[in-house]
């Protein structure tokens, strides 16, 4: 009998390591996704995830719409579609954006698989390895992962209680240019920012746009939470002031995250490149999902539904802020969002929130350490806590548990010094003090 050839073996953990593209070095598990398994345990109060609470959706209406869609338009909904997205949905997207002062033509809208894919496509179209993207500090972990995956250099510009600081942005642009590098775009979340919850003031928006025009820097405006403000009508988008802004939107926060339908609104030349990138990535965004969203918008009072969601999230925000006030040690500070999903909590310098996380999980509460929202290793003394998904009662209990863990850490800090920062990661003494207003 002929011996079968033996497959080459390797003692390395990953025998394919020397075959991967260089860009894979930037692919790492996000701080948020790494917590999913722990946070899903029923005994743990998760203040970590940013999952929309869809409990108020009229599932009977949604179910009937999807049934009618399959029966009446099944051959179209279940077939391939165009790379730019369904024309009817693109018209409806323009109506949605009009609530934020944006006047747009459906031809300039590209439907994407969530706004996350839109960030990916824009970065793919514009950025070569070593190009610079300026991001708020802190910024959305999903976007930072995209930029890292495309081998971009992220330069941070600080935020305060009024959003991105114009002087910090200008300094970041000037210093980047002085180093001989090119800024490809500014990535900003102006409304109820993820992770801080702060909102950029109208005056700041105008000043930021002027700075970017003066330095010939493109603006990428990511606005998944814009319709979820608690106290005011939707704020005018930055795109409403400047048609050169690339605007990203999503139905994940106002309808269904599971359908993965978002969009990019871009100047026509950029739009063409995005469509080509979309076609090479997915061939087309899923027609069924798009048509399901379109049917929902056509057959249901979606603006009334958003109003219900705003009230639900406002109740949860209030529960979190009240609990923070009641339970947190005086040395802690936090933001006070007027919309969206998140609060940014900062602890005394010397406490490492990532090192503290296992002890918090033991106390049956979860959060996201602040380091995940920086590209430069900062954020160790801060964390993102979310109020969007748990009930008000669970939020209050979760904050109570978290406060107990923090008090224990502060006692350890007072007795023994710093609680074990990860080697090599710097800790800012008072990170973004103007952001963390109590």
TrEMBL record:
InterPro entries attached to this UniProt entry: Aminotransferase_I/II_large (IPR004839), Class-I_PLP-dep_aminotransf (IPR050859), PyrdxlP-dep_Trfase (IPR015424), PyrdxlP-dep_Trfase_major (IPR015421), PyrdxlP-dep_Trfase_small (IPR015422)
What keywords does the record list, in alphabetical order? Aminotransferase, Pyridoxal phosphate, Transferase
Instruction: Name what cofactor the protein needs.
Output: pyridoxal 5'-phosphate
Q: Name one GO molecular function term.
A: transaminase activity
What SUPFAM superfamilies does the record tag this protein with? PLP-dependent transferases (SSF53383)
Residue ranges occupied by any Aminotransferase class I/classII large domain in the UniProt entry: 56-402
Please provide the Gene Ontology terms (biological process) for this protein. Answer: alpha-amino acid metabolic process
**Assembly with partners or alone:** Homodimer.
PANTHER family xrefs: AMINOTRANSFERASE, KYNURENINE_ALPHA-AMINOADIPATE AMINOTRANSFERASE, MITOCHONDRIAL
Family that this chain belongs to: Belongs to the class-I pyridoxal-phosphate-dependent aminotransferase family.
Name of this chain's protein: GntR family transcriptional regulator
Q: Which organism is it from?
A: Nocardioides luteus
Task: Please name the taxonomic classification of the source.
Answer: Bacteria, Bacillati, Actinomycetota, Actinomycetes, Propionibacteriales
